[in-house]
Design goal:
It is built from 2 helices and 6 strands. It has 105 residues and is α+β, with helices and mostly antiparallel strands.
Length: 105
């Protein structure tokens, strides 16, 4: 139980609007209400996974290296994709978003 308490103190939920995915620090973010999009899918939000359903949850972990996982809230209904990307500790730029396609079990 002590290990879980340590994790929860580092992972914070952030209610700020996600304007640019590159600016999301260490934490959990909820997306979709940023006012940048006129559709239900990402088209204009900087550094978002283009074409992904824009309402979802972003887990951003940054230390020396960094990674992000974006799960649309309706991934099961839209295209069953979860998006991931990373950045090395020596690199200054994020890799392109990749996706994992989930199947029903």
């Amino acid at each position: 139980m002590g290990g879980l308490i340590g994790i929860s103190s580092f992972l914070k939920q952030d209610n700020k609007k996600v304007i640019d995915f590159n600016d999301c620090d260490f934490g959990i973010y909820y997306t979709g209400d940023n006012g940048l999009e006129s559709t239900e899918y990402f088209t204009a939000t900087p550094n978002a996974p283009k074409g992904a359903y824009r309402y979802g949850t972003l887990l951003s972990v940054k230390s020396k290296s960094a990674f992000q996982i974006y799960a649309p809230i309706q991934y099961g209904f839209v295209d069953k994709k979860v998006y991931v990307r990373s950045k090395s500790e020596t690199g200054n730029s994020w890799q392109a978003w990749k996706y994992i396609t989930l199947t029903d079990m």
